[in-house]
Amino acid sequence: MALKSSLSVGDILKLSHTAWKLGRAFTRGTKGAPSEFAEVERELNGLSEALKLVAESLHEDDSILSQAEDQTKHAVNTIFESVAKTLQDLESFVERYQVIKKHDSGYDFLEKRSWSSVVLANYRTFKWTTEGGDIHALRTMLQMHVDCIDLTMQALQSRSLTRLKKTVMPVSRNVASIHDKSSADLAQRIRDAHELIAHIVNNPPSSEPRGRRQTASHFPPFHDIAGYQDERNARVVDWNFETGTPSHLRGSISHGRDWCASPIDSAYAGECSRRTSLRRESLTIPALLFATAGENHPPAASTDSRPDIDEEKIEPPMMPPLPPLPLHSTRRLPQRSSSRRSASQSRSAELPPPPVMPFGAPRVRQPVATPSHFFPSHWTESEVTEGVQTARPRMKSPHRETVQAEARSVNLAAKFEQQLLRNAAILCDVRGRLVEFAQHNPEILDMRYNVEMKEACKECRILVIRKRENREYGGTKVVTSVWCLSDDNEVRLQQKLSESQETVPYCSYFEPEKVSLEPPDEPGAGLRFHAEEWGGMLKEEKKTNWINYYFAIESDAINFQSAVFGRMLLGSFRTTKTTVIHKGILGAFAFEEQFANIELLRLWEEDGVETPGAVGGVMALMHISSSFGEGWARWWINNSRQPVTIKEDGVKYARVKGIDVTVVRPGATARRARSASSSVAGVVDTSLLHATPPLPSTSPSLSPSSSPSPSHLSSSSFQPQHQQHQPQHHQPIKTTSAVVFPTPPLPPTTTTTTTAVPITTTTTEKESSSSSSSSSSFKKVSGVRIEFKNEEERGKFLHAAELAQMRSVPLPEL
């Protein structure tokens, strides 16, 4: 699709058709298509429309480009060659990754092109340009091409060779470097091109009349004012060109089409309907700069006042008009013959006199678009400065103001992102649909309904970043945070992860794209809303205990979980019930204990960072039922030191034996927290001192609630119940170092007489209660029976476990 050496209207129309065809390939409005595809389609449609307008402009009047220098023509051709290169690369990508599907319409089979599933699942990681840019870089590159073409068309419509050259030369050099792979990154090159275009728009090059290459100071001296007046009258121009519109009803070309308007904008469309007449108007004509309907005419003494010209009596000259000269100018034009002078005098006699200004009216001068030394010497410096500053008024349309605000926001967002990613390790970079957090509503008293989810951000970029930060009282620390940067540059959200504890992500059972995090109870662990500028004061900080992240696709949720947990997620398998398998024959007659409810069983691969010495280990993770225990249960799948057996058991069941899981009993954590707080406060529980003494055959270090081993029990432990609970009448003997209990009397059936032998213990009551509570706070699980949601889920788990056990390694204990 490369353009020829000589620019052709047909080549540009061909590019316009190619851009339109590629826009159709991105299927805007199709259900399931990503939002990025619709954005690329809009840019391609805008590029197609801009190319078509340039082709029409060159076809109607190509005199400006034909009169330009070869260097200028080459620069214009370079701009279109860059467009052709981008469209050619994109067309090759579309042809490669689109598939043809046949659709039965009832009468015939219709062929429909659509993207392959590989592209739809990984379109964010694909390289959409030959320079290595992603889909966002492709969109900005297309937008840059549209801006370059609009800028070139404005330079062509100005009918100024100087402005055309000063516009296209720097743009062509910058655009040519876009496709240079040896230079800086693509995003920086595109950003430089946008900055250059914005600079040219805000500071347009100075224009010169067509056909005049010399400046005003090169004219010979001139002393005869009549000769200049003759020359001026002889070179009267038909201001109406083709349309015949009065000059005082027209604005300059800069007042017409808004450069920032898109081809589908209303302002753009309204101006394109008049492009035939506006293309004929020149920015160098003083009357078109500020003459608007309703303005006052200049005073009669002004040399810039031009009376209306009878178009039927005066023929249009072949050369463009010269700028007006002041009375005290020292320049001189070539002398004219007397016949020409008489003819010009006769013509000026037929013109109507200048308008008469009332006496005492304020002196209003018409600003002119000429160099500063053209102004009369009796003008003050303030008047000259005012005329120069107002020579090019900028019409601020709502669309222009919106685009400028968006440009400022984009610049701030780019600087914020640059500072954020500076010297940082990016663990994850994915797309998110929604981020919400839990907030308590104190107005609702019912605890079941007083929590509502508040929206924090949507349509955003979610990153997990590990970065070094300064401590509050000196020094540095490494902090891992989750950042959310919204697409509209309005929200910059941060959630810091715990520094001392690992963060286990919760994955939704019914929505695989949803991941939840529970912030730790640490200072600064809530949601922090940052300002637009890096390092500014926080806009807001929300305290919450639950945050939901909704991702665009399931693979993004998997990458996010792996980055947060510090291990690679191999698979998630849905289960409906998990029960405990008891050892021995008595296990068959034991009651069924439910280990977990409807939960996800996930397999993670260790890399040795979170668990030292566990490189290559595959760990199973499942949340325990609240009625059975607290927290998470985890065990190794491929530990060579402790082999695990996994077998099928029915259609949807699987038995896992050989595991060693220690489960914390329900409420044990709260009890230990209460005892710890009591110890810190200095409170001693004296209820044990006055409690019923234990049996003589039972060690005092064991409480009735403990589960002692058979070696710690004597025969009296198995006495009948009525004997064990007989009332005791002996009081314990209290000492400072130990507690001595007398031996209780034997039952009446016993004939042997005994004496009270005090039993001395060296263990304090506080240590006794703590050891007994610790032994009763945990329980061991060596096997579980898992019921999966369906046979397919069970098959996936067995296959993943088999692959993991094929590479068994010695692993440390969890």
Automatic annotation (TrEMBL):
**Organism domain of life:** Eukaryota
| Compositional bias per record (Low complexity), positions renumbered to this chain | 335-349, 691-726, 749-777
Q: Where is this region: Disordered?
A: 294-359, 691-783
Biased composition, Pro residues: where in the chain? Answer: 317-326
- The identity of this protein, by name, is Fungal N-terminal domain-containing protein
What is the species of this protein? Sphaerulina musiva (strain SO2202)
Taxonomy of origin reads: Eukaryota, Fungi, Dikarya, Ascomycota, Pezizomycotina
